[in-house]
Structure formats: structure tokens, C-alpha cells
Amino acid sequence: MRGRLGELEATVMDVLWRSVDPCRVRDVRAELAPGRPLAYTTVMTVLDNLHRKGWVRRELDGRAYLYRPVASREEVTARALRDLLDSSEDAEAVLLHFVRSASERESELLRDALAAAGTYPPSDGGDPDDRRDLGDQGRADRDGADRDGGDRR
């Protein structure tokens, strides 16, 4: 996926993300119509641009294309967060500021996600060493040794 989305592109992506099934141009247009009447060709051009940018897949169904997102809204958001961290000169400071701003529920979700990834004790107060098997690299990371057996502490 290349480039940021313009306002209309983002609105069209919202329609596609909400839809369970792939959409035709007319489906997207009908969904947008109550609040934003647009010409069929305008919606078609936006969907074509989204396809060219890699945001949507399309498949021919008869004489019309069916469009569906390449990635979920959550996957796209996670990629955007990853890009922000990668572009920062101090990712640790960014993460610390973010964590300080997180609600208790968001903090719990983060702890649980890290626990599921095997990088943090579960938020239920379980034993920190009671994690799923991380393989050799995960054990080395957890125990403070590098891959060659040296101590990194």
C-alpha cells in the first residue's frame, strides 16, 4: 500500500471495511449517497486509484469489478503505528509517552498482547516464567543470553 489516503479515498475505504462482502462501484456509491451524492464515475475513479495504490483488490464479476480491502482497518492502523515508530529518532520515548496516555483498559490489552507474544507476564498476575514456548531465540532473549551462548546482561 502506497501513499496516504485523501478524504474521499478514506471514506470509500470505510465503506469497504464495514462491508462483509466485496462491493461493486454501485454498492459503494449507494452507501455514500445519503450523506454525499457522488457521480458513479467519481466512485469508480477513486476505487481504481485505491487499486493502483495497493489498498484494494478487485476481481471481475461479469462486466463489473468487485472490490475488497487488501488489509483490515486494524492491520493498516498497526502498520501506520509501526511506520511512526520507525521514523522516530527515539522510539523508546515515543512508546513511553504513548503508554502514559493509555487508559487502564488499553494498558491491559497491551499487557495481554505482549503476554500472548511471549514477551511479558500475563496481566492476570500469572507467573512470568509461565509463558508459551518461544523457541531457542525466545528462551535466549528471556534468559539474557545471545544466540551464541554469550551473556548479554
Number of helices: 7
Give the total of beta strands.
2
In percent, how helical is the residue content?
Answer: 40-55%
Biggest sheet, spatial arrangement of strands: 1-2
Task: Give the percentage of residues in beta strands.
Answer: 5-15%
Give the terminus-to-terminus CA distance. 40 Å
Helix-strand blueprint:
Blueprint: H1 7-18, H2 25-32, H3 40-52, E1 56-61, E2 64-69, H4 73-87, H5 91-101, H6 104-116, H7 135-143
Antiparallel strand pairs: 1-2
Summarize, please.
Among the domains are: 7-69, Orthogonal Bundle (Arc Repressor Mutant, subunit A), CATH 1.10.10.10; 102-143, no CATH class. Helices cover 53% and strands 8% of the residues.
Explained architecture:
With 153 residues, this protein is mainly α. Among the domains are: 7-69, Arc Repressor Mutant, subunit A (Orthogonal Bundle); 102-143, no CATH class. It is 53% helix and 8% strand. It contains seven helices and two strands; from the N terminus they run αααββαααα. It has helices spanning 7-18, 25-32, 40-52, 73-87, 91-101, 104-116, 135-143, and strands at residues 56-61, 64-69. It has a two-stranded antiparallel sheet. Helix 2 packs across helix 3. The two termini are 40 Å apart.
